[in-house]
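tool_call predict_complex ligand=FE2/S2 (inorganic) cluster
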Amino acid sequence: MDTRAGKGWIPIGRVDDIPRQGARVVATEAGAVAVFRTGDDEIFALRDKCPHKGGPLSQGIVHGRKVACPLHDWNIDLGTGRAVAPDEGCAARFAVRVSDGEVSLSLAPDEGCPER
Ligand code: FES
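tool_result ok
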């Protein structure tokens, strides 16, 4: 299904509303979603729940394309949601798109771990 036509996407504000190397939490019908902005202004969205013990990833430090969980410092890849080895597990991913600086979020979570 092509969700780019509008259905299933919600506008969540501007890129500039998200702190660089930080995140915003968006409360959605699919649960809390952490929307991250990297130092290069790339935007990623993951369920705000670490695959380890559920820590709030939105409160972690973004470095490169990863976020360090604030609880026990697991590193989670923002693109795949996957914990960096040797840790294992994935946070659900949400698609984002940016148009003219406006960020939209898909509410269809991509659960589980992607193929390597
Ligand atoms: S809950 Fe995230 S590293 Fe433990």
